[in-house]
Amino acid sequence: MAKSLHDLLQSGLRAGATVALRADFNVPLASGRVADAVRVERTVPSIVQLLDARARVVLLSHLGRPGGRIVPELSLRPVSRFLAGCLRAPVRFIPHTAGAAVREAVAEMPQGSVSLVENTRFLPGETGNDPALAADWARWSDHYVLDAFGTAHRAHASTDGLPRAVRAKGGEAVAGGLVERELAVLAQVLERPGRPHVAILGGAKISGKIHVIEALLPKVDVLLVGGAMANTFFMAMGMRTGASLVEAGASGTASRLLVEAGSRLVLPVDCVVAKSTEPGAHTRVVDRGGICPDDIVVDIGPTTVRLFQDYISRASTVVWNGPMGLFEVAGFEGGTFGIARAAADVADSGATVIVGGGDSAAAARAAGVAPRLGHISTGGGACLDLLAGKALPGIEALSGRSDHGGRT
Prior knowledge:
The protein contains 16 helices and 17 strands. It starts with a helix and ends in a 12-residue tail after the last helix. A 6-stranded parallel sheet has the order 5-6-4-1-7-8, sandwiched between helices. Strands 11-10-9-15-16-17 form a 6-stranded parallel sheet, with helices on both faces. By secondary structure, it is of the alpha/beta class. The longest helix has 15 residues, at 38-52. The protein has helices spanning 5-10, 38-52, 77-87, 100-107, 124-127, 131-138, 157-168, 177-191, 210-216, 228-236, 251-261, 302-313, 334-348, 358-366, 380-387, 393-396, and strands at residues 18-23, 29-30, 33-34, 56-60, 91-94, 113-117, 143-147, 173-175, 197-201, 222-225, 265-266, 270-274, 283-287, 296-300, 317-321, 352-355, 375-376.
């Protein structure tokens, strides 16, 4: 069991101690402003607890995929301004990511203050888990807090190397409140799910979720599959998929999964198709066996929506990852929104509902049901890996995981 921020505070965190807090501020920006604040807001409680303890809080995060080079459009400066508003306190932005400039800025911080370091992925050593980069950050870190569940499945310098380096020098590396909550909710689903247990998977590719499908099949009562992923199963069944997105190389995998799953894997029975994916394109509903050569499947059909809703309505546990179609395009959102509403309805009745993945979370918000859903995870990949039984490097690096630097 990883140690938590509560454990660190209870142990008597020294006033003035410097805490490196790995946040997940990988948020969309629009015109230089934070467009979706959920990930920032969920980290605020951990920051406030550390500030109340008079710690010096230094925030680390990535934004986008700059590829190890400086990309001005992916600077975290706008996030620092937004965070200051959330905290109602100054947030110093450090326009450097590592080295002497950061060390000097940290040394100047008063007790009970917070700073945000520039995008960690501006340095190639971040995604390469460079020990030298981790050691550089550890020079000014007394302790480490992981509050970025969305990056916990990545063995990067700020999520794996740094906590190990902090522990090597005698500090603690602990889970923040956001991560602790994520782990507790997902542990319940893994260890003692209510029955019936229904999983819903959508999105584009089977290949990215094979390990999840294989891990979930023995545990769930029903696995509902939609999105472009369903097209690959249609192909494996010998059906036409028209001009739809299909992962042809995964046809064999789909065939095997169909045999292994039997009746527990439920596919769409009808589809919404169009000739293009442009907003306003004419659509029509067809049976899954009636897809024409120039048709593009853009959503699940109304009969499928009702079928899936029926399964969801009887569930005690629901896990949803991935949209049912191109919900972000006007006219193609019906199936995804129908699933979101069904999940909200069953959550209202007391079922455990977990939504994982940015697209699913965005769909829930667009459908207007996000506040009604039990738990919207801040990490799609991390959520799926955990449900698939994989160890998360960012969690394994924390204090309390083992006697050998967190490795198991």
